[in-house]
Design brief:
globular
């Protein structure tokens, strides 16, 4: 149980656009993945007391879970929403969002206000140096390939080839995180958010998606929280190779998006190499 009031929930539903069963722009898959990072099986029977839509599961979650968990989940969800809007240029209902933040701060308790939301501009302003690739946990034969792709990504960014930047950054990050997982398999396999097969076994690393690598690496403290928060443009980079998927996703990368993705890559490489405090 938690201390959310009926009025609180109305404000939160407005902030999360919970009409017709939806919650923001989450699909069933991404909704499950988001809650999985908080070790919550949102699609389980426990949260189907009102029905099986995402909005109804969210309402059930609010009714059953304590303030601390509900506050963390809502805070992270609004963080992602704000980043998505900033990257895509969508408008945000500022007063409603501010009210929702106030509610979350209250249920988290005195002295536990929600953490400040790092803006995209603040993330981009950080001075992050690309580490020596030879310090990364990848096979020696892969080092020259990563170095070559890093150089190509920089050239693509300068040339305005923004979709190419995203493809290159995504491929580099996936290769490096695969190497890190192979270097420390126990750490990655034991994470509660590691992707599982239907029989409950952890999938082979080669079957993981970039999004799954990012989630698990963040869960086991290989990546800093800002990498996961600002990685939206990269996580499904493979899908955008298909033109129709790009249409469905309404994804049109511009210079800003490409710069964020390249900054995410630099931050991730620095984290994996142990070069970020």
């Amino acid at each position: 149980m938690n201390s959310l009031t009926h009025i609180d929930k109305r404000y939160l539903e407005k902030a999360l656009q919970m009409g017709d069963g939806f919650v923001l722009n989450y699909s069933d898959k991404t909704f499950g993945e988001f809650f999985g990072r908080h070790r919550v099986d949102i699609h389980g029977r426990k949260y189907q007391t009102h029905g099986t839509s995402k909005a109804k599961k969210m309402r059930s979650f609010w009714e059953q879970e304590p303030d601390a968990l509900v506050g963390r989940v809502l805070s992270d969800m609004l963080d992602e929403y704000e980043v998505d809007c900033e990257l895509s240029g969508r408008d945000i209902d500022g007063p409603i969002l501010e009210k929702a933040r106030h509610i979350i701060g209250r249920i988290l308790g005195a002295g536990q206000e929600t953490r400040p939301v790092n803006t995209v501009q603040g993330f981009l302003s950080q001075e992050i140096t690309i580490p020596n690739v030879r310090n990364l946990p990848v096979e020696p034969a892969v080092v020259p390939i990563i170095e070559s792709r890093l150089l190509e990504a920089q050239k693509a960014l300068e040339a305005g080839a923004y979709l190419s930047v995203i493809f290159l950054c995504g491929s580099i990050l996936e290769g490096v995180l695969l190497g890190k997982a192979q270097y420390e398999p126990a750490k990655f396999n034991k994470s509660s958010v590691s992707p599982k097969t239907e029989d409950g076994k952890v999938k082979r690393f080669h079957d993981w998606t970039l999004a799954q690598f990012i989630h698990v690496a963040s869960d086991v403290d290989v990546l800093k929280p800002d990498v996961q928060k600002f990685s939206h443009g990269l996580r499904d980079f493979r899908n955008y190779i298909h033109p129709y998927q790009q249409i469905v996703s309404n994804f049109t990368p511009d210079e800003h998006t490409a710069k964020v993705c390249f900054q995410v890559l630099k931050a991730a490489l620095a984290s994996v190499a142990g070069a970020r405090p």
